[in-house]
């Protein structure tokens, strides 16, 4: 069982996560192609990658020639077959919809080289189900990055029912080359991080609902007393209350009663208090929506 040699990486989807993953890949020295059906998304992603590199040069994280090299390693394309035809490793970061991910994987199953390994950045969907789109389901595993990719150190490596050891090793290898630390998790709802985070966030809403303390004091208590970098309400305002509610509904369905979404959270969502992006969540944001 020889290891897969990885020199070329394809990233599918150039959105919030895709552009960060493409940057991490290029910065790690991989020849990187990034595919998105939207030319506009690709243009935005290229600008965002250049921005991350420029900031790194300013902060003396990389030299100017190194920065130029990183940017030049990224090849943006709207042609899926071209993006994956020479890839040794493919990272899927397309929208969180199972139908879309299944058809994308089916399309690259034949277009990518036979030795290529695949990873999906899904937050919650079943990777075991996704793997059914492939001729050899053992070639797919999870590679769960965090936002923003260039700052967050962890990658959750997810083993689905049929994922083979070579695929797990390939995902770990790429993550380590990107300077990330890894944990290996079995394919299950919320993996480790979303499962714990959703529970803390939900409990914070229950405390607010019961009048245990104000939102500001709950945030302050977790930051100063438990050393969390952000309070649970600051964090949910950033994540989006609608997104958090959807995650909790998913965990409730798969893991049971303790994940039942707090009624106060659902009420905020019904009121349109979706967080920073709406100008209003648990807190009020005077500035225009979305930063
Ligand atoms: P996004 O909406 O910002 O970006 C998705 C991109 O995919 C868009 O540019 C879109 O044009 C493109 N796209 C649409 N159809 C496509 C197709 N058929 N093939 C390839 N690309 C296509 O989404 P995102 O936040 O970057 O999320 C991507 C994935 O990463 C999702 O599975 C999500 O659950 C996961 N994820 C997100 C976060 C986060 O904080 N946003 C964190 C971890 C994991």
CATH superfamily of the largest domain: NAD(P)-binding Rossmann-like Domain
Mean pLDDT: 95
Termini separation: 48 Å
Provide the spatial order of strands within the biggest beta sheet: 3-2-1-4-5-6-7-8
Please provide the count of β strands: 8
Which CATH top level class of the largest domain fits? Alpha Beta
Proportion of strand residues: 5-15%
Structure report:
The chain is α/β, with parallel strands linked by helices and 291 residues long. 47% of the residues lie in helices and 13% in strands. The protein has helices at residues 16-27, 39-58, 64-72, 80-84, 98-111, 127-130, 165-177, 193-210, 215-225, 232-239, 241-255, 263-270; strands at residues 8-12, 31-35, 74-77, 89-92, 117-120, 140-144, 154-159, 181-186. An eight-stranded mixed sheet has the order 3-2-1-4-5-6-7-8. α1 (16-27) packs across α2, α2 (39-58) runs antiparallel to α3 (64-72) and α8 packs across α10. It is globular and about 60 Å long. The model has no long low-confidence stretch (mean pLDDT 95). The structure holds nicotinamide-adenine-dinucleotide (NAD). Residues 12-18, 36-38, 41, 93-96, 100, 104, 121-123, 145, 147 line the site of nicotinamide-adenine-dinucleotide.
């Amino acid at each position: 069982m020889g290891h897969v040699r990885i020199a070329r990486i394809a990233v599918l989807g150039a959105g919030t996560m895709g552009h960060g993953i493409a940057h991490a890949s290029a910065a790690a020295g991989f020849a990187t192609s990034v595919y998105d059906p939207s030319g506009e998304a690709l243009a935005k992603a290229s600008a965002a990658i250049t921005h991350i590199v420029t900031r790194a040069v300013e902060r003396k994280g990389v030299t100017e020639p190194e920065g130029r090299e990183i940017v030049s390693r990224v090849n943006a394309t709207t042609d899926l077959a071209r993006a994956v035809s020479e890839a040794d490793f493919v990272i899927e970061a397309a929208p969180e919809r199972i139908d879309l991910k299944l058809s994308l994987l089916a399309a690259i199953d034949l277009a990518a080289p036979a030795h290529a390994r695949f990873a999906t950045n899904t937050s919650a969907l079943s990777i075991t189900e996704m793997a059914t789109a492939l001729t050899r389901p053992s070639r797919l595993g999870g590679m769960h990055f965090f936002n923003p990719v260039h700052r967050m150190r962890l990658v959750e490596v997810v083993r689905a029912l049929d994922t083979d050891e070579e695929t797990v090793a390939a995902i770990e290898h790429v993550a380590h080359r990107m300077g990330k630390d890894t944990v290996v998790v079995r394919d299950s709802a919320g993996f480790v991080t979303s499962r714990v985070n959703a529970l803390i966030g939900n409990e914070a809403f229950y405390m607010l609902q019961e009048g245990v303390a104000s939102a500001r004091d709950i945030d302050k208590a977790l930051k100063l007393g438990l050393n969390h970098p952000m309070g649970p309400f600051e964090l949910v305002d950033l994540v989006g209350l609608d997104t958090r509610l959807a995650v909790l509904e998913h965990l409730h369905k798969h893991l049971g009663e303790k994940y039942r979404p707090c009624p106060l959270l659902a009420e905020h969502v019904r009121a349109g208090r979706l967080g920073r992006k709406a100008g209003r969540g648990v807190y009020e944001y005077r500035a225009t929506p979305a930063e």
